[in-house]
Amino acid sequence: MASKSPSVEIEVDDRVVRVSNPERVYFPESGATKLDLVEYYLAVGPGIVNALFERPCMLHRFPKGLAGDKVHQKRIPPGAPPWVETVRLTFPRWNRTADELCVTELASVVWAVQMSTVEFHPWNSRRADPEKPDEWRIDLDPGPLSDYAQVRRVAAVAHEVLDELGAVGHPKTSGGSGLHVYVRIHPDHGHRTVRRAALAFAREVERRAPDDVTTTWWRKDRDPHHLFVDYNQNARDHTIAAAYSVRGLADARVSAPVRWDEIDDAHPHDFTIFTMPERFAALGDLHADIDDPGQTFDIAPLLEWAERDEAAGAPVPDEPDDPGDTGGDGG
What we know:
alpha+beta; disordered C terminus
């Protein structure tokens, strides 16, 4: 008879989550284990819950650790406890539905890690109305011949434009090679309209930094030295790693909230599951105020820019059928 896998029980608030194979190595470069991953998410608990709260969430799972295959999973894995909450989404193109994880408490995050999740990729809308985003995402996605100095330069331009608009941006490293900025918006528009507004913003950044930025749609047509402002991350069912999400990279990097005044000195490699707990203990969640009154931006000025650009002949590329069709990867 096969022996039972080793496990530990983790107390999370009023829940107990059984974590099997806690010593399985997930990150071979450092030897970090499944239990190390759990302990990281516990250390940044308020931050990851705030980032995921009531949002449909796609899971990037590594059942054998990073040395094995990566699984992109929309539907919640089987065997979920009754207290793990979900939201049902419809996908008309395929005439299908999917019950996706909808985090409302830290125990759900720990359970997802028990199910081999490393990365959490939430929608930019919430389960009350998944078709109306409340988050505009600015994704600064460097080209293959870019460097991080370029990301910093473009971030400064994006910050300048946001200030002129009166919009409050909340930056974070992507955990890859780029930078994300989140802006709370009124959930008054569909995904297509928010994407159109994001494209208008991207074109304004491109006008101000033409030597660094492109909004060219297809990867094959872009100058590899340019950074793509990936407005398509605002399309329906397109997701990027949440703030505080670990990334499936050898050094166990984290998508880390940063202050605007840190961007010139910070680098994505600075933020890992080993360094973030101490940073979080000292600074708390840098995105904690993102839902405060006064933080929400009306995208009407961006839609006016979109009308101006379109009247001048600028195209609005069709949304791709598949989230990977643009060639952008969220940084």
